[in-house]
Every structure is written in structure tokens, then in C-alpha cells.
Design goal:
It is built from ten helices and eight strands. The chain is α+β, with helices and mostly antiparallel strands. It folds into two domains: 221 residues, no CATH class; 77 residues, no CATH class. The longest helix is centred in the first third of the chain and has 52 residues.
Length: 391
Amino acid sequence: MTILTRYVLKNIFLIFVISVLVLTIGFGLIFITRIVMAFGTPLGIAVAMFPYVLPEVFSMIIPLAALCAVCPVFSKMAACGEFIALKSAGIPPWKALLPAWVFVLILSFVMVWINDLSLSWGRKEMTRVLFSGMQTLVIGKIADEGKFAMPNGSITIEAGSVDETGQLHDAYFHFAKQDVRGTAASATLAIDYKRDPPVFGVSLVNAQFENGKTGVYFPEKVFFEFTPEKFSNVLLHADPSMAKIPEELEKLERSRQEFRQKLASRLTFGCITGDFSAIQDTNLAEREGFERQLDFRRNRYRLIIPRYWANGFTCFFFVWVGAPFAIRLKLDDFFGSFFICFISILLIYYPLMIFSFQGVKNGTFHPLFAWTGNVVMFIIGCVLLKQIHRH
């Protein structure tokens, strides 16, 4: 390792580590304050959720930290005439940039893994912690007072006793939204992970419902949702990991084929029996709605892999543009060079990223269009490097 490489890496790595620490603390405080103040989530649950939001925080702050580390170092080197000294010694400027490029290239591969981790494992674990906290609150309320009621009166649950496993016995319930009340031999607070995002509710066994004059008995389990609004606002859908994308796409295609076969069977039966209600426009609307939903999910899943890779390599392309831009600025000012570079990149990269991602989700663009912002950044970086080499 040459003296120049050690000099550049030492300065970049030191600023990078400090930037990651400062930004992590800042984003952590913002996250906890937001879900406590805006959504009314208890502080204990918010703090317990924070470790699982860290991958998502890192996916946002690491590209900023890399840019924050590179811009001041190269801008100061240019301001102090160090690049002029390098050129007079026959060393091209790109050799000073090479250690930074290698560093952020390795970091970009780590970022791809962090993106995958944050939107699959991280969000699922946040949901688990949130619902576990809700479960503790609801069961604790019933165990202490024998009753839990939503503030708006939409749901009321009472129980004769609560055992050690959290199961409610001799439960009484009232769901105002469905205008349903009744009793159940036992009830268990549960989470339906099949919904997107998941929902919290109560699973009732041997339940007897009363709706006005009508009574219905359910000997088996029946699930009623009652996720409080302040909690549902915190929930975000979790995407499958990159390794599971082919499997998820196959499931969607199977669902499409099964739905079409079911619809075709219904239409055939209607034609044979003369029941033309089976081929009315309502069935066409049902099919269009289902197909539209499947297409949206398919496009979202097809976007995941290129999006994770494109987002991961923002780290590299930020530095690819930021380093030569900082050299052109020649500012001996830590924050000045970073903010000028960041605002310039922000105005170009993020609108392109949002536009391309939305186009892929809508099915307008091919999934590889997720790299549009990175390709534009690469071209801009090449132009800046050419100018630096000349001047």
C-alpha cells in the first residue's frame, strides 16, 4: 500500500465512521420521537423496535456518510494544491481517487445485503415487536381490570380469567364496526401475517355471535381484526428477500392460473345450465380487479432485485460524482463542500430514482430501468473526471 493510498484511506475512513455514528444517533432519535409523538406508540415498544430498524437506517445513511467522508478530503486536497503536486510528480489525479472508489465499491456490495435485510427481515421483526407489545398491553389491561376497550368504543373485550399463556376464558366481545356482540369459550390475541401489512386481532373458539335478532354459532376458530389506528400507521409491508423472489413469482402465477380456471369452470357451468348470471359483467369486473392486483404485485416483486442492487450501488455512484465535483470546488471547508455536492446530487438522482421505480411498478418500464439514476450519475462522473484530467 503506497503512502498516497494510506493517506487517502485514513482520512476517508475516520470521517466515514464518525458520520455513521452521528447520523445513526440522529435518525434513531427521529424514529423514536416520530412513532411516539405522531402515532402514540408507547416508548418501551419504540425503543424495542429500534434495533430492527437499524438496517433500514443504514441503507439511508451510509451513502450520505460515504459522500460526507470523500467530499471534504478531496476538496481540501485540491484547495491546498496537493493535486497540482501529484501531477508535477507525474501521478494522475485518478490514482488519488482510486482508494476511495475501491472502498465504496466494497461498501456497495455490503449495502445490497443491508437493503435486502432491512425490507425483509427488519420490517417483519419490527411488526413482531410491535404486535408483541400490543398483546402485552391488551392482556395486561384485561388481567388487571377484566376488560379492554378501544378509546373510540369500536371494540370491547372482557374475560372471566386470563391464564399464564395469555389465553382469555369465558370471553365477551363487542365489535361496533360489524355491529356484532357475543361470547366465546376462549379467545387468543393473534397476528394475521398473510395480510399486507399484517393485522392484529382476536381468534375466538366456540363463539356465539348476535347481530340484532340473528344468532350464529362458530364451533371452530374465527378471527376478528382490531388493530388500533395508532399502531396500524406504524406498520409497513415487508418485501420477500431476493432469494425468495422466484418462488413468490411462481406463487403469483399459480394464483392467476387457478383463478382463471375457476372462472372458466363457472362460465362453462353457467352456459350448460342456462344460468347466464355467471357470465354477467360483475364477473368481468372481478377478473379485472384480481388480475390488476396480481400485476401490481408481480411488478413490485420484479423490481425488488434490481432495486436492491441499484440502491446498494448509490454509495459508489455518489462518490463517483462527488469526489471529482469536490476537487473542482476547491473548498477548504468541511460542511460547505459536502452540502454543495449533496444538494447537486439530490436534485438529479432522487427524481430519476422515483420516476424509474414508479414506472417499473406500473409495468411501464423494464425492471432494469431501476438503474436509470445510477447510469446518469456515472455519465456525469465521467464528464467531471475528464475535466479534472485536462485541467
